[in-house]
Amino acid sequence: MGAIELENIHKSFGAVDVIKDVSLNIPEGELTVFVGPSGCGKSTLLRLISGLDQPTSGRILIDGQDVTRRSAADRGLAMVFQSYALYPHMSVRQNMAFGLENTRMPRAEIASRIEEAARLLEIDPLLDRRPGQLSGGQRQRVAIGRAIVREPTAFLLDEPLSNLDAELRGTMRAELAALHGRLGKTMIYVTHDQIEAMTLADRIVVLRGGVVEQVDTPLNLFNAPANRFVAGFIGAPKMNFLPRPDGRTMGIRPQHLRLGEGGLPVTVDMAENLGAETLIHGRSEDGHTLLAMVPGQVTPERGDVLSLQYDEADAHYFGEDGLRQ
Amino acid sequence: MSNGGATHYLTAPLRWLARAADVPLRAWQRMTGQGGMIALFLLPNMAIFSIFVLIPLGMNALYSTTGGVEFFLADRPYVGGEHYARLMDCENYLEPRSCRDDMFWIAVWNTARFVIFQVGVMTLVAMITALILNRAIPAKAFWRAVFFFPVLLSPVVVGLIWRWILQRQGLANLAMFEMGLEPVNWLTDRFWAFFAAVGVSVWAHMGFYTLILLAGLQAIPRDLYEAAEMDGTPPFRVFYRITLPLLMPNLLVVLVLALIRAVQIFDEAYVLTGGGPGTSTMFMTQYIYESGFANLLRNPGLAAAASILMALVLVVLTLCQLWLSRRAGGDR
């Protein structure tokens, strides 16, 4: 249960096309991450799946059933909002019970579901507190708990970690991955943070301007990006792009460059020593900026000319149309 | 000439004033310290507040302990709490005719009835209007302005407009006549006159309270409604489990402000009905005004005592409002 299919989804707001002919197949139990820059349509796509917005055209199927015109509540999905959307005047327990009460579920059943979810998320001591009395991380857990108690066919998570500080984000990311493993439910996760996407996803959907650029596993996206945009978006630091005389562009990741004789001559602008590795900012002979992440501690001076080598197998080539060749 | 140049010339007198005041101000600060400067800057406002509020309030309290018809305090004999005793002398407070000053108690009960109806109806209508204006309706800004417009009118203008509409041969009866209905004595029938006063007051003040409620509604995050939508919450449950509790701080402020204002009802009702027919629309403020200034046997002391009693009611309501505002502020 929880397979989601999108068929030729199109969404316009007035004259602006936000989602353009998107077709996707999200298998049951998979954690799929929608990633892309701001305004790429990833949150809109999630809202279309949730039923909070209606597509202009196209079909949405859940477990083979067309739910395109069904209300959000009738799709059997649960959503975790970026702002958590917890009711501030209700206790954690009331927040978690609210949706279940709508279904006229017996009180005992509601109580048992809340207890179970609270235990799973370790929020049992917080059940009688109000959201205002909780930290960001605790609120996040409550928001997830509210989704879990509904026992949905799939979870939709809209940038759920973006309001947390970096350290907590890392912890919650690991917890979410573990939670997905335990629940085994389909999850669609929206983020603009490609590290979140890479670490959490079974598959990543890269979006740009309302169009799906590539759908693949995190490593496949990293190793074989379908086009120049994906190559530049996935991976940190960003891939270097160097134009070739034949009109193509060569892409090489900073991690794949190393110091060695007879390589690319690069004039150093700045070096950032991170301890285990050094990030060198420089310029190639024809003036293109270049980043190299070399192992160990290197301390070049500004203006030094270094020689950077790479393996041809690590180079990516993109045609004038931006597609991988 | 550049904008900066124009500003330079326009602010020249201010700069001259600042330079002229600089020396005495610095001397004052040296003598009195920071406290003295604060007092100096507060002085103009406090002087105006004293002249128009504090001193009249004190004089009013003094007047309430004096008798006679003279206006100058020095000419008035001291009578102690006689006026208060007269106002409170009642066999049965619910039956004004059993009271020594029956008109005062008629006015008290008329005001109480008015407050209950006016505040109740107005809060309800303001809430419904705010809920509608908070939705994605066409020409939202226009409708917002339409509902707020009467607030900008002078109460006397409001009274005159509605008297013109509701009088025996007014617009309302003309419209009813055109529709084949019997005309109604809106302003000369005891029942209709009271509710005309309530209705006109609601019309005149509703826009202000609608705006407060609308601001409260707009402060409720959209995500909460979307979360409720995902949960399949029926609209009425959304209203009473989400909207109403989150709007409660604004609603309480509206209720108390409307109460305070309704207790002071005078001008539009006085212009509309003149307190009539009989005494059916005579409210507290009208009683005070007529006792003190308009009646043939004017009694400024009695009017002052009545206004002190009314002020006590208003103080209690104002304290309620302050307490509720602070509590709402604390909740946030």
Automatic annotation (TrEMBL), chain A:
Family, similarity comment: Belongs to the ABC transporter superfamily.
- One GO term describing the cellular component: maltose transport complex
Q: Does the keyword Nucleotide-binding apply?
A: yes
Q: What are the ABC transporter domain coordinates in residue numbering?
A: 4-234
Q: Which InterPro entries match?
A: AAA+_ATPase, ABC_transporter-like_ATP-bd, ABC_transporter-like_CS, ABC_transpr_MalK-like, ABC_transpr_MalK/UgpC-like, Mo/tungstate-bd_C_term_dom, NA-bd_OB-fold, P-loop_NTPase
Per UniProt, the keywords (alphabetical) are: ATP-binding, Nucleotide-binding, Sugar transport, Transport
Q: Which GO terms describe its molecular function?
A: ABC-type maltose transporter activity; ATP binding; ATP hydrolysis activity
By what name is this protein known?
A: Multiple sugar transport system ATP-binding protein
Q: Which organism is it from?
A: Paracoccus isoporae
Please give the SUPFAM superfamilies that the UniProt record associates with this protein. MOP-like, P-loop containing nucleoside triphosphate hydrolases
**What taxonomic classification does the UniProt entry list for its organism?**
Bacteria, Pseudomonadati, Pseudomonadota, Alphaproteobacteria, Rhodobacterales
TrEMBL record, chain B:
Q: Which Gene3D superfamilies match?
A: MetI-like
| Domain named ABC transmembrane type-1: residues | 108-321
Chain segments annotated as transmembrane: 38-63, 114-133, 145-165, 191-217, 238-260, 302-324
Q: Classify the main location.
A: membrane
- Provide the GO biological process annotations: transmembrane transport
Location(s) in or outside the cell: Cell membrane
Going by the entry's taxonomy, the superkingdom of the source organism is recorded as: Bacteria
GO cellular component terms listed in the entry, alphabetical order: plasma membrane
Keyword Kinase: yes or no?
A: no
Membrane topology is: Multi-pass membrane protein
The UniProt keyword set, sorted, is: Cell membrane, Membrane, Transmembrane, Transmembrane helix, Transport
Task: Report the sequence similarity comment from the record.
Answer: Belongs to the binding-protein-dependent transport system permease family.
Give the protein name, as stated in the record: Alpha-1,4-digalacturonate transport system permease protein
| Source organism of the structure | Paracoccus isoporae
Taxonomic classification: Bacteria, Pseudomonadati, Pseudomonadota, Alphaproteobacteria, Rhodobacterales
